[in-house]
Design a protein that fits this description.
This protein is an alpha/beta fold. It folds into 3 domains: 122 residues, RepB DNA-primase, N-terminal domain (Alpha-Beta Plaits), CATH 3.30.70; 232 residues, P-loop containing nucleotide triphosphate hydrolases (Rossmann fold, 3-Layer(aba) Sandwich), CATH 3.40.50; 71 residues, Arc Repressor Mutant, subunit A. It is built from 13 helices and 20 strands. The strands form 5 sheets. The chain has a 9-stranded mixed sheet with strand order 11-10-12-13-9-14-15-16-17, with helices on both faces. Strands 1-3-2-6 form a 4-stranded antiparallel sheet. The N and C termini lie far apart (108 Å).
Length: 469
């Protein structure tokens, strides 16, 4: 009989000559094969006639390939010469070499191929089994240790989102140092550990020098710098699903506690605005956590436009999956500053930021205000930023209006004071102007700068700027 003579594709033959017959039968039953008939061959094997219920030859071959691969994966050494659809089986009730070919059973296991596939996929999906809560509650599993106190547990995921100019990479490097040295990060105590920093964006020399600058600016000794491992991948980045197996293989014996990936736009796969694509992308972070036991920390950028009117968890660019997926989502947003606070930081070149959160394992913390003074972030210890609104918020708009009105009043006050003190036309010293207005000399200099060329400052003397005819 030839394959082209076959008109129905309902059954396939499974046979193994390399296992004892009792073991064959035991495995067929254990694996719940949908067996229409089980026949002894009067030799080394039994023949299992298995339902495959295929519609055509192509589907038949695909199903037989799956069946044979499944059996091989579960310890059944199948005779692969039986895979073609015209293969014949032994007939029960016939003597072969003085041995009787016997019918051992009919309609064993699952009732159909579709029914058996439910079983096969359940066995092969590698998902955890079902558990009884009562049994678990009697001896509950211990919670993982906190890597960042009140924020992130060991083996969990954390996303930091923010706009450009926020210094996200510097903040992540500071976190690496805090973990390696066992120090607080933005006021949150960190458990000492070993951390991998995956650098995807800046060149190798810049990365190393940034770490050194941050150490020096923080004013701490480099006791445990060896516990920061760097993987420089600029120019070598691949999509995350391709990178993860390589990463897992490299860190297997590194005894790490955390893995920092900076930034993720370099390795993102799929459409950033597609929930399904981003769910698949974020699953790779779960894989890192599950296969390494490390906390996985990564950063992402804000979407375009003003962010102050949005909730912290809605500011990250792309699908909302980014905010919902991590166990800890932290967001940085720049603050709108009042005239008084602007004057205070004029000489420092600092920008002001607020860190907000959405936490799964812990109660959300009170927003943390801080300054970014290159190359590090410093907590706002004197609470000067407490009342400052986020840029783009309605409060920020009102503050800008107040600032504009205040600036106009201050400018008019400055002009009047200048006219009073400049009776001889030789100019007014910064010191005298400050004394007259009861302000600091730094504030006088700031006002001159903001008045857009009305006045010039030369060697400490204020003069009216020459007007162009």
């Amino acid at each position: 009989m030839r394959n082209e003579n076959v008109t129905g594709f309902r059954f396939a033959l499974v046979e193994s000559d390399e296992m004892p017959i009792p073991e064959q039968i035991s495995l067929y039953r254990k694996l719940e094969l949908p067996i229409a008939a089980l026949v002894s061959s009067a030799g080394k094997s039994v023949h299992a006639v298995v339902r495959v219920d295929a519609d055509d030859a192509r589907e038949y071959r695909n199903r037989v390939t799956f069946l044979y691969d499944f059996l091989a994966a579960h310890g059944v050494k199948v005779d692969t010469q039986n895979r073609n659809e015209s293969r014949l089986s032994r007939m029960p009730g016939v003597t072969r070499n003085s041995h009787f070919q016997q019918l051992l059973g009919v309609n064993l296991g699952r009732k159909s191929w579709a029914d058996w596939m439910d079983f096969a996929e359940g066995v092969s999906d590698e998902l955890p089994g079902l558990e009884d809560l009562e049994d678990l509650a009697a001896d509950p599993p211990a919670l993982p240790e906190e890597l960042i106190e009140g924020v992130l547990r060991q083996g969990h995921k954390m996303l930091i989102s923010g706009s450009s100019k926020a210094g996200k990479s510097f903040l992540l490097m500071e976190l690496c140092i805090a973990i390696a040295e066992g120090l607080p990060w933005l006021g949150f105590p960190c458990r000492k550990g070993r951390v991998l920093y995956v650098n995807l964006e800046i060149d190798r020399a810049s990365c190393v020098n940034r770490f050194v600058k941050i150490y020096n600016a923080m004013g701490i000794k480099q006791r445990h710098m060896k516990d920061i491992v760097i993987w420089n991948l600029r120019g070598h980045a691949v999509p995350l699903d391709k990178l993860v197996p390589k990463l897992v293989r490299r860190v297997r014996h590194q005894h790490l506690d955390a893995i920092v990936i900076d930034p993720i736009y370099k390795v993102i796969t799929g459409d950033e605005n597609s929930a399904s694509d981003m769910a698949a992308f974020c699953n790779q972070f779960d894989r890192i956590c599950n296969e390494t036991g490390c906390s996985t920390i990564y950063c992402h950028h804000h979407s375009k436009g003003a962010q102050g009117a949005k909730r912290a968890m809605d500011r990250a660019s792309g699908s909302g999956v980014f905010a919902r997926d991590p166990d800890a989502q932290l967001d940085m947003i720049e603050l709108e500053l009042s005239d008084e606070v602007r004057n205070m930081i004029a000489e420092r070149g600092a920008t002001a930021w607020r860190l907000e959160c959405s936490l799964r394992e812990f109660e959300n913390f009170t927003p943390v205000n801080f300054w970014f003074e290159y190359p590090i972030h410093r907590l706002d210890l004197n609470t000067s930023l407490k009342e400052m609104p986020a840029q783009g918020s309605a409060e920020a708009g009102r503050l800008k209006n107040r600032f504009h009105k205040t600036s106009e009043c201050a400018a008019e006050e400055f002009r009047t004071a200048f006219q009073i003190q400049n009776m001889d036309g030789t100019g007014v010293s910064v010191k005298d102007m400050a004394a007259h207005l009861g302000l600091a000399e730094r504030t006088i200099r700031n006002r001159i700068e903001r008045m857009k060329g009305e006045f010039v400052l030369e060697k400490g003397i204020i003069r009216e700027a020459k007007k162009t005819p």
